[in-house]
UniProtKB/TrEMBL annotation:
Keywords: Hydrolase, Protease, Serine protease, Signal. Residues 143-225 form the Fervidolysin-like N-terminal prodomain domain. It comes from Halanaerobacter jeridensis. InterPro entries: Bacterial_rp_domain, Fervidolysin-like_N_prodom, Peptidase_S8/S53_dom, Peptidase_S8/S53_dom_sf, Peptidase_S8_Asp-AS, Peptidase_S8_His-AS, Peptidase_S8_Ser-AS, Peptidase_S8_subtilisin-like. This is Serine protease.
Amino acid sequence: MVKIKRNYLISSLLVVMLLLTACSGEESTTTHYNLTITTEGQGSVSPSSGSYKENEALNLEPDPDSGWFFKEWQGSISGDRNPYPLVMDANYTITAVFEEIDQLSLTGEVRVSNKTAESASESITIRQTDIKFNSQPKVKSKINSIANTREQEQYKKEEIIIKYKATTSLQSIKRLEQKNNLRKISKISNESEKIIHYQLPKDLDVKKAVKKYKQLEQVEYAQPNYIYYATKIPNDEDYENYTQNSSTQLNLEAAWDQQTGDSKEITVAVVDTGIIPNHPDLQGRISSAGYDFVDGDSKPYDLSANSHGTHVAGIIGAVANNEIGVTGTNWNINIVPIRVLGTDGKGSGNIVKGIKFAAGLAVENNTGKEITIDEEVDIINLSLGGNISGSDKDKTMRDAINEATSKGILVFAASGNGVYNEDTNRYEGISDVLEPASYDSTMAVGAVNSDNSLGSYSNYGPALDLVAPGTGIYNTTGYYDSNNDSFIPIYDTMTGTSMATPYVSGVASLLLADGVSPSEVEERLKDTAVDLGEEGKDEKYGYGLVDAYGALLNRKLGPPKVFAATKSGDDLTVVSEVREFANNTTYGLDQIDADEVYIIGWRDVNNSGRVDQGDYYGQIGPITVNDYSQNNDLYLNYIGPTTRDVPITVNGLN
């Protein structure tokens, strides 16, 4: 009996211990974290400080006292989100900051849109639309370091260019060729200029040959056959995700109300990789006067992996109002494609031939026949460049461009895309504008991002003249399908100073169509550009961002202004400080002297003191000042001919 009782007691104790252990284990698995909330200023927060279960979801809601507003969170969390979703996964110490209403600063994002306002008295919200890519397969760039001009070859091996003096006879030239075993590749000029491209004897050093032939009595100059590269950055992952409303930055919609190019057809020579001949957004824009100096025929088709020349041509003159694709800068342009860059995006002596050809000069083709262009070109676009080191300069290129500009042709060239940095995995601009952009006879164009900041890849320096959008530009491209012997037109995004340059060429063509003389175009573009860097001309932005609208009006437009105002009928009265801005940015308005206001954004283009056609205008409101709101996003829209409810008078704006 005693033994049975003992076993019974032991069993009972074990059961009790197991039960206690189970209860103790359940309690120990529940973790709590502490939430400590303090306030700065006058207000409270719910829920309050306390201990909360692990992963418990809370919504922190600030409740300001009368005359105060919630400004921000500090401590373990930050920002102004209200309410703030918090998951208790740690101990949190948080401060809710409240400020008095009389310290109010209305803030928000401000954007300029070229979407025409339907009504000047209504707030119109414009959102960035997603870029839709063509469903057909796209070709990625195969030019892996196209902008890395300092590491790439600067000139052709075993090749040289010699310009003979005008007095040198053909017999003397022939004797010199035979004596030195020089094999003529082609003439870069006509007979009278005597510029010849030679193949040197094998293993003869180019620099030594240049030095030797410079010293000859018959020779005016000798130089290497320099290589130039298309100044487009490959569509790798770092660049193709950019989007950009470049027409906004250039004020193009407003400019198109003044001039679309219909007044006079202007001809632009795109000296590049050629063109996709059947692209629907380029039909009716492509001249038959083009030429292919790479293959030596009259079919300058774009066979490059990235369709560089096609993209450049589309920026200048893609067809407008055809319900497909994109819109070019000029709606009535005549584009002459001149192919001088190969499928790898680089070229040498053919570029000089292409420039001379565009300038109406006779040049020799691959078969030795002299050819001339059937069009009169107004503008030459050179979205290419080469870094010629040291004191050496490409005299042949310089002379060809000088010949073109002496005939009144405008030449725009890309500043270049710097070098590729392996450590940062990006292209980085250098303070060295490439040739031929660095010449006095060309206008050098750099590139900016969508916020008007200088593209990290864009070269700069004293020779830089202007900047234009160059980052993430969506336009015409295509590729050659060798299996079916056909060209496939598509659209794609590219980045580089190559993209910025045709925007400037396009705006220049609008000025020419509007009757501005070629000799006045350059100064007009410089004088009306939006100053982005140091006041006046600087090395990062040149004279500034091209403003198509200001250039056509021949007026340097002032920056948009943001202010708070009261409204009575069609009259606005300013009741706050006034802020100016050049870029898309945030704004903050202090010293607000009213309980209910409108936030106004306005660019008074004609300085009339009234919101009327041609201006940019946007408003938010009415906003009750006591009901503080941090998210007062403001969009300025272009006031076009169809906009209703204008003009509006603005009082108290200095």
